[in-house]
Amino acid sequence: MDSTPSPSSSSPFELVSGALGRYIPSGKAAAAAGPAGAEGDRTTGPRVPDPAAGRQEQILGAVNLDRDLRITRCNLDAPVFAGLDAKIGSPFVDLLPPGDVPTITRRLRQVLETGEAHVARIQRLRRSDGSELVVSLSILPAAVPQEGLTVSVIAMAKRLHLYAAETAIGTSLDIGETAQSLAESLLAWGDVAAVDLDFAVWTGEGVTEQTLGRIRLRRAALVPDRAWPEGYVTPGDDLPSDASRMLSQAVRRDDAPQAIVMPDREAVERVLGSPRVVRALVPGDRSAGVACIPLVLDGPPPVVLGVAEVWRRADHPFRDSELYDLQELVARTVHHVDLARQHQREHTQVLALQRRLLPRTGGDTIEIASVYQPATPDSAGVGGDWVNSFPLPDGRTALVVGDVVGHGLGASAAMGQLSMEARALLSAGLAPDEVLQHLDETVTLLDDAESGLAAGYSALGSTCCIALYDPVSHHVALSSAGHLPPVLVSPDGHAGPLAVRPHPGLGAEFALREPFDVHRFDAPPGSLLALYTDGLVEDPAESIDEGIGRLADAVSAVHPWDTLQQAARRVVSTLAPVHQRDDVTLLLARMIGYRKEDTATWRLPARDDAPARARALVSALLRQWHTRDDTVDNVSLLISELVTNAVSFATGPVTVRLIRAGHGLLCEVGDTGNGRPRLSRGDLLDDRGRGLYIVHRLTTRWGVRWTDTGKVVWAEVAR
Fold first, then answer.
1. Cα separation of 439 and 421, whole Å?
2. Under a CB-based contact definition with an 8 Å cutoff, are residues 77 and 70 in contact?
3. 547-555: long-range contacts at Cβ-Cβ below 8 A with a sequence spacing of 24 or more?
4. Residue 163: which H helix or E strand, with range?
5. C-alpha span between 532 and 315 (Å, rounded)
6. What is the DSSP string of 121-135?
7. Are 160 and 300 in contact (CB under 8 A)?
8. Does pTM surpass 0.90?
9. Is-contact 544 538, C-beta < 8 A?
10. Beta strand 192-198 with 149-156: parallel, antiparallel or unpaired?
11. 78, 90 in Cβ contact below 8 A?
12. What are the angstrom distances between the C-alpha of 112 and each of 107, 141, 143, 151, 699?
């Protein structure tokens, strides 16, 4: 075979080939290999495996592939590889069983595209005489991408097969990948391997001892990858209830889990019973015998997590030694399945928290849509991104987006605490800059940098952006703590990031702290505001400004008639990197606002006649709105009391605003005072506090919000 040195002495092929001398047996076995031709052509017929090779613990070989997955060089001179027809120029997949070709081709292409090695896959290779060789196969990228790939193979004895299989199975905390690795390892003993897991394993629930007949199985893995007959259970399908019951009864004889063997089709049909169950579980006529090995989690009592099935032809019955090997492999790896179950439970909890914080509806004055896309399917990749939108009691809408440094349950817990605190403070009437000041203090209490980062996250350095939309004035007040600037699309289609002054993230050192700014801008009806986290626009191949520019272009392409949720998904699919390294979060808000005929604002001087003027103006407007008489009387009294309070305890003009919203009326009275009105339990004959008592009795809810010049007392009345 061709073993001409590569120009790059550090290529993976040369590194693997250089190690062959340590593993190829010397003397007679080595001589049997014979010289290699310049072009790799064999001058003799197919070689028969040397019996001495069976005594070797492992033999290493290497095959070099071009980008078309054809063999360019190979070094498979060890006797154990005899019969593998690895000709120069032939497709590598010719060495594979037909059912494995799609999976291995996909793996090879993936390594070519990503440059990330795929290590220690248990795989079968076809010899020219029809027999098969079990190897540990690793796919390595070449030092120079144009050179293609190097595939290393290790032919192993059964004991080393067990060790390598256990190592490969424990590399992932994803349930599907763990089950797939187990099935691929089991395939060395048969023609078809399947892994069926209890439904509780999939959901991450606590697994307890199941009573017979109540176990519910779902197919987690099936190899090889091929077209299966109709009615056969494939990955993701639930086994029929009677099939689950039959399997659970078969492996729990005498109330103890144990492996069973059904040697032929007659035994399989006798145990499984109905033709429907046979059609669901038996892969074909050739694979008629099966070994069923329970996945047993040790404990008092032992718990069955699922069942692994290995099918083979009836003319190749299972030997006792093979059954012992199968049981040992499953016993060694079942704890990886349980770890994946526990990880799934954490993943489910984290995602539930993430989804709980996603906005659900925007109300009548604003339309919202959001997309959250975790970086990886496991919980370790779920980070501290959050986005929220909620109506405030005074009719405004809050839009919040934030990012806690790190990933996992700790980051999501910190995220949840900050998000809920922000919502509570905004609902209490605080301005966005004041809310950020409170959050800045909170993160210093949550953790310090060392303890947080040791757990994979840190609240210190978290970013947050808060926007408050007023649907009457069509103004937005926005404050940011270290977050990327939102993108605004005006009704005429112009799009760009807002000129928000940079500010350190939350919890910055005292020397770096500065007052949080409030950026105010107009958002007329039809405007579109995009808030997002950095995972959407960060790309190592371009600057962050270019990423934000691409976001502005994508958002500006959203048509006013487009469904906003579909538009948000389209923006994310356009911008999100193919190999996502961080969570992606996007919130789109389309401003609608109130109609002019549904609002009215009056500015009155702070004089003794202000309450009477306010009553007259409000009463006249409510009658134009065809409001019920009792509601007119209640609102007039309410406005009178609020204006009286403003004139008595504040200076400067008084602003009265009335909003017709849904099934209620929102009344607002603003003044220049900074005192907070409080409802007391004083005597009803006591004049002090009587106005607020009336407000409390006439309204469904009321509150106070603070402005730059004073405060606004708002109240909601049903109409």
1. 8
2. no
3. 547/575, 548/484, 548/485, 548/487, 548/497, 550/575, 551/487, 551/575, 552/487, 552/489, 552/495, 552/496, 552/497, 553/495, 555/487, 555/489, 555/495, 555/528, 555/530, 555/588
4. helix 158-169
5. 62
6. EEEEEE-TTS-EEEE
7. no
8. no
9. yes
10. unpaired
11. no
12. 9, 7, 11, 12, 67
Which uninterrupted H or E stretch holds 459? strand 457-470
Contact 36, 60 (CB under 8 A): no
Question: In which order are the strands placed within the sheet that holds 383-391?
Answer: 383-391, 397-407, 457-470, 475-481, 519-522
- Residue 358: what residue type? L
* SS3 category, 392: coil
Structure token digits, residue 29: 């076995």
Tell me phi and psi for residue 549, to 5 degrees. Answer: -65, -40
Q: Which two tokens stand for residue 392?
A: 């405030």
Report residues of the chain scoring pLDDT below 70.
Answer: 1-58, 131, 145-146, 156-173, 203-215, 249-256, 285-287, 299-301, 344, 346-363, 375-384, 406-410, 447-458, 509-513, 577-581, 675-691
Rounded to whole angstroms, how far apart are CA atoms 676 and 703? 10
Residues 396 and 474 sit within 8 Å (Cβ to Cβ): no
Output the pLDDT for position 469: 94
Long-range (24+ apart) CB contacts under 8 A made by 124-128 are: 124/96, 124/97, 124/100, 124/187, 124/188, 125/84, 125/95, 125/96, 125/153, 126/84, 126/95, 126/96, 126/97, 127/46, 127/82, 127/83, 127/84, 127/85, 128/46, 128/83, 128/84, 128/85
404-446 per-position pLDDT tens digit = 876 666 677 777 788 889 988 998 888 999 999 999 888 887 7
The answer for 104, left when phi > 0, alpha when psi is -120 to 50, beta otherwise, is alpha
Decide: 434 and 554 in contact? Cβ < 8 Å.
no
Assigned token pair, 146: 């144009």
Phi, psi angle pair for 697, to nearest 5°: -75, -30
The tokens describing 512, both together, are: 């770096």
How crowded is the C-beta side of 231, counted as CA atoms within 13 Å?
10
DSSP 447: -
Task: List, as one string, the DSSP characters of 75-139.
Answer: E--SGGGTT----TTSBGGGGS-GGGHHHHHHHHHHHHHH---EEEEEEEEE-TTS-EEEEEEEE
- Residue 308, helix vs strand vs coil: strand
Cβ count within 10 A of residue 230: 5
Other CB atoms within 10 Å distance of the CB of residue 537: 25
Tokens of 130: 């029809």
* Residues in a beta bridge with 75: 62
Residue 70 DSSP class: B
Convert the pLDDT of each residue in 274-319 to its tens digit: 888 888 888 876 667 888 888 887 766 677 788 899 988 877 788 8
- Classified as helix, coil or strand, 199 is helix
Query: For residue 654, what is the enclosing H or E element?
Result: strand 654-661
Residue 345 to residues 203, 207, 216, 221: CA-CA distances in angstroms?
7, 11, 18, 20
Cβ distance 590 to 527 under 8 Å? yes
| Strand pairing report for 584-591 and 654-661 | unpaired
H or E element at residue 413: helix 409-427
Contact 290, 329 (CB under 8 A): no
Would you call 349 helix, strand, or coil by DSSP? helix
Strand partners, 197: 218, 306
Amino acid occupying residue 425: L
